[in-house]
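Table S2 (text version). Query chain:
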Amino acid sequence: MARGVFKTEGEARQFIEEEGLEWMYDTGSIKFAPDAHGNLFPNNEILLPAGFGKTTIMRLMLDMEAHDNPNSRNQNIFKNLAEAHAMSSVVRQDLQSPKAIEMFGDPVPRDGAWSNDRFSLAQRVWGDVRDNFEFYGTNSDAPLGKRSDRVNSDDVETPDTARTTDACEKLIEWFATGPMTSAKPLWVKDKNGRIEIPKKLDWPARLYWGHNNWGTIFHPRGLHSYLANHPNYNYVRLDCYSDRQQKQSLDDRMLTAEELHDKARGGILIFNKRYRNIALDPAEMSFQEHWIRGGDTITLSNQTVHYDGCLDKMYSYKMSKEGWKLYLGFDPATGSTTRFAAYSAYVLVGVPPLDPEAELECYLVDFLKLQTDYSRQLDILLDGNAQLGIEGFIGTYDLTQVTLEKNNHGMMAVGDDRVKPYIASGLIKASYTGTNKLDPVIGVPAMAQMVENGHFHLPYATAADQEKTETFITDMVEFHPMRDKRDLVMALWLATIPVRGLKNKYRAWSSGKRFVSPLSRARMRA
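Corresponding structure-token output:
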């Protein structure tokens, strides 16, 4: 796609199917931009994860372009002039390698440009004021108003150019008034809209004049996001993982899945930008990662603030003490296991006896997030299924209350004969959640203070605890009130609904009558 080899969306989709690349739809994104005639625009926004050879690919693309079409005019833009010159130098070295000269001839012209800033090829047969390859840094006036056949930009969005919304808008404006208007053929079109390329030129018979923007995203309103949503740009986003379960690396030769997991622990939002091409603005998130992990942070007013964090290194999963009240939140899903379907989520929290002089402490006791059919979802919620090796939450724990989301897929569960006895007893309470889930007082945002103050305890005692908790942390940090609805966060919110009412900040936990399941009674008798 980056070289215009596909004329239509159908050709591109056929290639993806024949090459077994459908996995890109599971973890990445692909969008085709056809024109009024059904042909793909030759502009491409391509996001690749850091550490997976994106600059090397850019280098190979320029090498191929020089050999494939020595008459094309290529405008190449990098984050700064030093990076541009470095690429120019290495490409010229490639073109002068003994094997390249043997196959394509000596590329160095006897008279003409051959420098870091620009160079032309000896094989060129069509003269023009612009060279075959010109190299520029961003936010420079040098490339403005200069025509080309192809513009290639690599890693131009950086922490500096995407530091603020104003910086993002400045870079977008620079591209919109310069590089995005540069690519244009030298020749006129015939009555059918085809470019009248001189017959003496050996010009590749494919789409050509356009812009390729390569890089890794840094800001949700930066240049990459702008081009990803542009109607004239095809869009490809690759994740560092090639599966939804995040068990397989995009390329083990570059970074293994284990190495990627280690990098994620250094900061989820930063990891998402660098390696997953998912940009989220920390200021818009319901839960800040430094609240969860703890430590010192510098505020906008240059003050140091310390957070105790929520990682409890003395606490493991399934630990609960006498007197704790246990609350389960269940967010059901369709039962579909397609890549487009949501997950069913179960979150169990424990609350120690309330100290009138202290703030409420809440412990994550257990959680589960999976895609499975409706019957298995109920097995997991209720008394389990011994034949399938499933332990049910109600059968395993003496719960004070279960809160089940009854809108959408939960309506089926509310009316199920297996669930009705638990509803009648008061153990399961159905909760209709609409816009109230985002309410700052009673919705998900209301849990933020508990997390910020370090009163939500996440198991972190063992390596197994830490690995499991990182999944939960990811859902918390990535939860965005207006975009993504993470399943575990919704189940956590459902579990904490009974909290509404008690004291100042967190209100009361209701002390409803405890329902003991038949399996639990049998265990107690034993």
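Notes on Table S2: The mean pLDDT is 85. The two ends are 67 Å apart (CA to CA).
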